[in-house]
Amino acid sequence: MAGAQDTAAPAAPAEQGAGAAGVFNIPDNVTMLGTMDPNNRRATAKVNGQIITGTDVDQRAALIIAANEGAEISAQEMQNLRLQVLRNLIDETLQIQEARAQEMEVTQDEVDQTYNRLAVQRFNRTPEELNAHLRTIGSSPASLKRQIEGELAWSRLVQRNVEPFVNVSSEEVTELHDRLKAARGTTEYRIGEIYLSATPTTREAVAQNARRIVDQLREGGSFPAYARQFSEASTAAVGGELGWIRLEQLQNPALEAAAREMQPGQLAGPIEIPGGFSILYVIDQRQIGMADPRDAVLSLKQISLDFPKGTSEAQARQRTAEFTKAVTAMRGCGDADAGAAAIGANVVNNDEIPVRALPEALQQALLQLNVGQTTPPFGSLSEGVRVLMLCGRDDPQVESGPNFDQLMSQLEEDRVGKRAQRYLRDLRRDAVIEYN
To answer: Can you tell me where the transmembrane regions are (predicted)?
Structure first.
C-alpha cells in the first residue's frame, strides 16, 4: 500500500539555511555537553500552577485502551501512551485556562449535559451506567468530563478568537466551484487524518510516536478514538474526519500521492508534511457529480434455513443443496413466502436497507441482481444457510455537488483549523510548565 511506509524526508543540512534549523544556525556535528537518561520519563506536570497527577494520566490512558477494545499493549507502548496522554492533558489544561482568562469558562451544567448526551448516543448507556462502566475500566467520570470541558473550551475560544478573523473571498469560492465542475466524474474521498506537529528538535521523537500509532491502528485500534486523543488538528473532536474532499483540497503533494493509491479501509503514514506528520485513513470514495450505486436503497427478503443441533458437515452440505434448488425454483418475491414454507425456511422482509449497510461481498452480489433473483447461498454449519432475494431497488439520484455556501464553509474550516493550531502553539510557548 502506497504511503504505508515512513516517507519522512531527511532534514536539510544546516549550512543551507533551510527551515527553522537554518534560523538557529545549528552545526552539522553537535557535541552534547550533558547527559539525558532515556529511561527517566517524567509522568506528571504542573501547568501554570495547576497540577496534572499520575492518576489523571492513568485514567485518561484507560479511556484510550477501552476505546480500542482493551487490546494488549507492551510495557514500552504503555509508557509511550502515558507520555502522549500527558502532552494531551497539558494542551487541555492550557485550553481550559485560556477560556477562563478570556471569561469564557465552561460551566459544570454544560459539561454534564454533554456527558449525559454522550452516554446515550456514543456509549448506549444511561449516565449512571456510564459512571459505573468508566470505573470498571480504570477510568472515571471526572476524566471524561475533563476531556469534554477541554473540547468545549477550545471550541468556544476558536469561535471567538479565530473564526471572526478568517476570510474567504467570493472569487476563491467561484474558482473552486469551477474546478469542481471540471472535475465531474473524478474521484472524491472521505478521509480521516491524525496530525502530529513537530519541530526540528522533536522531529524524530514525533515520527517514532506516529509509527507506533500506525502499528496500533493496524492491530485493530479505533481510528476515531486515536484521532480524538492524539491529533492536533481541529478535526480531532470529530474523530479526525475531513469529510468528502478532492485530493487537491489536502493541499500537500505527499498526502495527495498517498491517498490517490489507497482504497477504502486502508491506512497510510506517517507522512512528513510542513510542521509535522500526518496519518491518513480512507473511509470511502465516490465519483464527483455521479450517482454511486452503493447509495441505492433495496427491498429484500432474507430466506434462511437453520440446521438442527448435531447436524454433520455432510448433512449440512446436503441440506444446503436442497435449499439452493428450492430457492432457484421460486418465481420471484411473490412466490418466496410459500416456497420457503414448503421447505421449512424462514422469511424476513426489509424494504429500506441501503446497499452500504451490507457487507462488501453482499454489496457486489446484490448490485448485479435483477428483481426476483437471489444471492448465492451463504452461512455456516452453526448458523445455517440463507440467501437474499432482491424485491425492489430505489436508485440514487445524481448529486449536483456542493453549492457555493458549502464550498465557502469548507475553505473557512480549513483556514480556521490552521489558525487554531498556531493559537495552541502560542499557548504552549507562553506557558510555565514544571515536570515532576
So the answer is: none
